[in-house]
Amino acid sequence: MTRTDPRRHIPRTDRLLAVADIRDATHRLGSQTVRAVIVDVQDRARRGELAPERVEATVVDELATRTAASGRRVLNATGVVIHTNLGRAPLSDAATAAVQAAAGYVDVELDLRSGARSRRGATTREALLRACRGAGDALMVNNGAAALVLATTALAAGRDVVISRGEMIEIGAGFRLTDLIASTGARLREVGTTNRTHLRDYADAIASGDVGCVLKVHPSNYRISGFTAEATIAEIAGVTSEHGVPLVADLGSGLLAADPLLPDEPDAASALAAGADLVIASGDKLLGGPQAGILLGDADLVGQLARHPLARAVRADKLALAAMEATLSGPVPPVTAYLHADPATLRARAERLAESVGAIAVGAPAVGVTVVAHDGRVGGGGAPGVPLPGWAVALPEHVAQLLRTGDPAVLPRVHDGACLIDPRCVPEADDHRLAAAMRAALAAGGEVS
Ligand SMILES: *Cc1c(COP(=O)(O)O)cnc(C)c1O
Questions:
Q1: Whose Cα sits closest to atom 1 in ligand 1?
Q2: Model pTM?
Q3: What tens digit of pLDDT does each residue of 202-224 get?
Q4: Positive or negative: CA dihedral 129, 135, 137, 138
């Protein structure tokens, strides 16, 4: 570094820590977080990415939007409603407020009137029972996988779990349902074939084995077509009820009641009405709530699971219980609104976004800025064949990385050489922030034709 090197002018850490705004941020964020931001901004200045005289203001700006956790908010412009890499379902404002309220001391296991201990999460249980007609009882645990482990352990450890070979699925990140079940000490009893499983396959297994439960899994992330056959829940229930064997249905996505938009997605109320004894659903897929596993069904079975020692290891935390109750009792969660978004409204928003960033030519090829028809997706392994008709702004492909690393961070869909901005899963109130991010990325990336 020479005497005239501009890097000599980068403010030192102790000087920055004495700046009033930065000192105040230390009370809010802790000194470790503040120092990490300072070091990062100083490094950028050393690398020449930032003028030394901009360091102080940049630190102040970054601290203003920081929290003590480093996860960044992302505008989801992919059109994928349940985006696994973005944390699946975004919580509703009502659920977010409930989490905030539950963050302190809260009456999660206390009856304030009597002062006596109460059943944990009783009001969330009531909300689940209101949302799912026909369930005798409900239990919420950490996630869907935990619900499956609890059910198979409590009902079938050391015994058989009967499952169709067509339903032995891998979900994502190498997670196989069958490995999970085998890890509980239950024996997998595979029946049928990949494409065809008949009622008699279940009946034979039940008649000849030591069966703890029959598991019917909805293979939400793939479909088989052609020469196929499966036994329905109602058919299997005819056999299981005769033998006193519990029938457990893992719905995967987690609708509690039927949604006409997704006719092939099973729902808890219908599965119970068809004769399932216990239904397993995920809280943060189609239900649109926090991460959770939901068990609904026969009161004796749910009670048996709730009393099992493993239940304590997979119990839901107070924040998730609060978020779930608010999701069920409050206004429609974002997931539901995004799934049912009106294509005409999406088109108008896409056109406004395109207008605010540059030239617009509806339906033209993806050069510069155009508005194109674009199907959204359910995502999260749900309803893989169902397109959600909508619209997107197409930008040059190279803009995608600038959008992801911009502020706010925007995740677009990169497809066929274009960077697609689908407004479906962006709150409308954030459209101006999205437009500003698009303008900034286009300006940084060069051309708008
Ligand atoms: C997603 C899914 C699960 C696991 O649920 P998590 O809440 O992710 O643990 C279990 N079974 C099926 C069929 C699923 O689709």
A1: 252
A2: 0.91
A3: 999 999 989 999 999 998 778 88
A4: negative
